[in-house]
Amino acid sequence: MFGFIAHAQLPAPQSLSYSKNKSTGKKLIKQGAIYSAVRHLEAANEKKPDKKKLVLMLAEAERNVRNYAAAEKFYAALEAKDRKNKKPEYTFYKAMALQQQEKFQEAIDAFNAFRKLSKGNNKYIEQYKQAGKAIDGAKLGLAQSDSSAEKTFKAVHLGEGINSPAKESSPALRNGDLLVFERFEDQTFVQNGKAWKYGFLTNLQSAARKGKAWQAENITEIFKVPEDAHIAAPSFTEDGNTLFYSLCKEETPLKLRCDIYRSTFANNIWSKGEKLNSSINLPTATNLWACAGKAPGGEECLYFSSNRNPGKGFDIFYAVRNGDGTFQRAKTLGTAINTTGDEITPFYDYETNTLYFSSNGRGGIGGFDVFGAKRLVIGDFLEPENIGMPVNSGADDYGFVYNPRKNTGFVASNRNSISRNDCTTCNDDIWLIQSTALYPAVKGEITYGRAGLKQITNDASIALYDAKTNEQIAFTQAPAGNYFFDLEKEKTYKLIAKREGKKDVEQTLNTLGITESDTFKINLNFEEVIPENYVGTKLATVYWDYDKFQLTRTAPDSLAKVVNFMTANPQYIVEVGSHTDSKGSDDYNLKLSERRGAAVVKYLLSKKLPGNRIINKPYGENQPASPNEHPDGSDFEEGRRLNRRTEFKVVDEVK
Fold first, then answer.
1. Residue 530: pLDDT band by 50, 70, 90 thresholds?
2. Are the C-beta atoms of residues 409 and 400 closer than 8 Å to each other?
3. What number does CATH give the domain 153-435?
4. What's the rounded Cα separation, in Å, for the pair 145 and 542?
């Protein structure tokens, strides 16, 4: 699926003898030219059918070119000849071919037969495990094949304007409107006086929607690609002004290696591609499918796939982007995402903080399936989830991209291609993905200042509440001054933004009667005004280490705001309200909050502030600023950190 193999032009198989076709096919397999090998082996089999060694070569070759129907036939023939069951792998590969044709019940039966034959045999221990995962995936496919089952998406094959008898893959969206993808076409070029024909020479195609149809055109020349190189795996940054792609060249005979490049768009021109550093482009590996996203720690980064770890196939890596646009050393995402199989085509959705990728190492409906893993605000990814049919199928499904605002996405797949008649699963086409469900959401910026002078905040937080029950549904710190929350249909919500020393900003919204997916845009602003009276104003917040009442190193910065205010405004009384998280008993936490308040009061008194203007008020755990637990009951460490606090609020004037 992601091999790019070249071969010299050869005589037609029909003109060769059985022996010549067999030997040529065998030679081409060793060279990696599997598609050409199949044509010669099939011609040999027509001349002398049912030769066991030839049938075995054909079965393996058909499996590798993803002709699942032919692979099933040849493995079934081998299975029938293996009367003493010495080769249970024939049953295993027949089961795989059945699953990839979406013959799910037959596949389940065949995988169970294989497990029965191979149980206890250490030679097949890995395949035994794979068969177990495959059975679960086939059961999922069986359930989702039910026409009455509710589907999240619908998949539509794009017609001749996009798909052809060649291979189309790696779809990318620019600004949600322009589709860019790679096409593998037969090409011939001359090197050292010898004509070579590529089985797959990739070029970039660009397509815009014309009504309901899409029409593609070749844009490879824009990037000045050498004629003997592939340009592959395009992706755009969120603003559409940076393109990442890979250039692949034949460094050793008949084998290609790929490196990642970057081009930027300015003054209506794409710049010459810049090869990224050796941390990303490891010289001994193939490096493909780059995409911009957020790293586990929240930094801007580049995700990509590489086979740099011997014996582990393709894994997904990330490299944090520096302020000057360079990248730090690449790191693997580890076992949370990567398996012993292949993980490819990462795509990061900024709005939902979800990393999508395809894997053949997690089980699934068949072949490569698309999975989504949600990234926590700061931290690791949640367990990847199979996003189901019809994005996934029994065949290989990869290169998933989706823009929820435009309800437009794409996936590359070799399922039931209508652009080739000789083998309906040997060719990758691009499918349009659209949501069948309504996905309302809200996003916006948090600013401060007067009209015309607003600036983005870096110290605000925002929470989403159910307006009827006043229950907090979601919460996020907003260090970049923006937020995004998923919503549900037929509900009324309230947004509350908080900022130290400022009055809360509230805004209501609702999703009543919506008929299509939409992302509401609501910007919240902290007005910079001088109040007539500061009573009710929150001045600052101090945070505490777990189970401690000693001031942290950063506490004096917040306390300075309190000291400055109380010095400049001697007519006001300030409450020192101290809180804890939910760990420990109520009595213990009330005493702990008293000690925290006392530590702060001691500090304020040391700054010559009069004690009659300071009220120490312990609250314990009774007024959390954030949930202490996730909805599933697990510990929410970030929420507990936000609850370990002392807040300073103006409560009265000196009488």
1. low
2. yes
3. 2.115.10.20
4. 55
* Cβ-based neighbours of 247, under 8 Å, separated by 6 or more: 225, 226, 229, 230, 231, 232, 258, 259, 261, 273, 275
Regarding the domain delimited by 538-653, which CATH topology (the fold level of the hierarchy) does it fall under? 60s Ribosomal Protein L30; Chain: A; (3.30.1330)
Q: Count other C-beta atoms under 10 Å from residue 190's C-beta.
A: 10
Q: Which helix (H) or strand (E) holds 560?
A: helix 555-568
List strand residue ranges (DSSP E) for 564-604, in order: 572-579
Neighbours of 532 (CB within 10 A): 6
> Could you say which architecture CATH assigns to the domain 6-144?
Alpha Horseshoe (1.25)
Length, in residues, of the chain: 655
Q: Is the dihedral of CA 311, 125, 68, 34 positive or negative?
A: positive
Domain definitions of the chain by residue range: 6-144, 153-435, 441-526, 538-653
Three-state secondary-structure class, residue 148: coil
Q: What global pTM score does this model have?
A: 0.67
Q: What confidence score (pLDDT) does residue 102 get?
A: 95
Q: What is the DSSP letter of 146?
A: S
Q: Which two tokens stand for residue 328?
A: 């730090």
The DSSP secondary structure of 206-233, one letter per residue, reads EEEEETTEEEEEE-GGGGT--TTSEEEE
What CATH number belongs to 441-526? 2.60.40.10
